[in-house]
TrEMBL record:
Pfam families, per database record: Abhydrolase_1
GO molecular function, one term: hydrolase activity
Protein name listed in UniProt: Alpha/beta fold hydrolase
Domain (AB hydrolase-1): residue spans on this chain: 21-249
The UniProt record lists the keyword Hydrolase: yes
Keywords of this entry: Hydrolase
InterPro entries named in the record: AB_hydrolase_1, AB_hydrolase_fold, Epox_hydrolase-like
Organism listed in the record: Acetobacter estunensis
């Protein structure tokens, strides 16, 4: 499946920029490519950047979901764009997709940055049933932003999560979900889970895990599997940040991201 991509680079042709591996951004559950716009715009001043809508999200097609399937979507899209290898940055669900891409196609990943997720079970604090509850919400004939917020509040208590979900609803007359909400709901066990990785399948390239200080998605019990699959990994923690490390502390995340890319 070819994914929708926001493709940004230097405004003027730059020979040096064209020789650098592009940076690929993969968003988390219920997100979309433009969520990484702050970082993409800055990096695009000096190199090509590609922010992708994963399947069932944003403007990408819908279909069954699993991490191997989503990683193949990214691989197919990179191939279509003639990208031989890239620095891949993924948050949460996008981080698991990025890890799977690196494990299955290590030659296509120059570096790997995984934001606040581990290769294992977990990574969605709202519980398995949220997507199903969202899919079952009865939409009225007309929705404003305020009435949509009130509707979402029936199943989501956190205002910041409701704001994230709002980007996935077509407001106005005949409102509807723009994402594959039913496909996402059906795939939730796979999204929260992590497939078994065979012994010997590793990604030996530079790998950085970025944890939020207040988040619990990367724990010491994850370290052995991180080491097994990504033997050269490093772990850094962003202070005063929860799971949404890039949104809660953008300046710190930008510094970590730029340092990793340039190192």
């Amino acid at each position: 499946m070819l994914l929708n991509v926001i493709d940004r680079g230097p405004d003027a042709p730059d020979t040096d920029a064209s020789s650098l591996p592009p940076v690929v951004f993969l968003h988390g559950l219920f997100g979309r490519a433009r969520n990484f716009g702050f970082f993409q715009r800055r990096l695009a001043q000096s190199r090509r950047t590609l922010a992708m809508d994963l399947r069932n999200h944003g403007d990408s097609p819908h279909g069954p979901m699993s991490y191997p399937i989503m990683a193949e979507d990214v691989f197919e899209t990179l191939t279509h764009l003639n990208v031989e290898n890239a620095i891949v940055v993924g948050h949460s669900m996008g981080g698991k997709t990025a890890m799977m891409l690196a494990l299955h196609h290590p030659d296509r990943v120059a570096k790997l940055l995984v934001a606040d997720i581990a290769p294992g079970e977990g990574g969605f604090s709202q519980g398995h049933d949220l997507a199903a509850r969202l899919a079952a919400l009865p939409f009225p004939d007309h929705l404003t932003r305020a009435s949509a917020d009130a509707l979402l509040a029936e199943v989501i208590s956190e205002p910041e999560v409701r704001n994230l979900m709002m980007q996935n609803i077509e407001l106005g007359d005949h409102p509807h979900w723009t994402i594959g909400i039913h496909e996402i709901a059906a795939a939730m066990p796979d999204i929260v889970g992590w497939p078994s990785i065979p012994t010997g399948m590793t990604y030996d390239g530079p790998t950085l895990f970025v944890a939020g200080e207040r988040s619990h998605y990367i724990q010491p019990e994850n370290y052995p599997e991180m080491k097994r699959l990504f033997p050269h990994y490093r772990l850094t923690t962003i202070k005063n940040a929860g799971h949404w490390v890039h949104a809660e502390q953008p300046a710190q995340f930008q510094a970590v991201l730029s340092g990793f890319i340039e190192s």
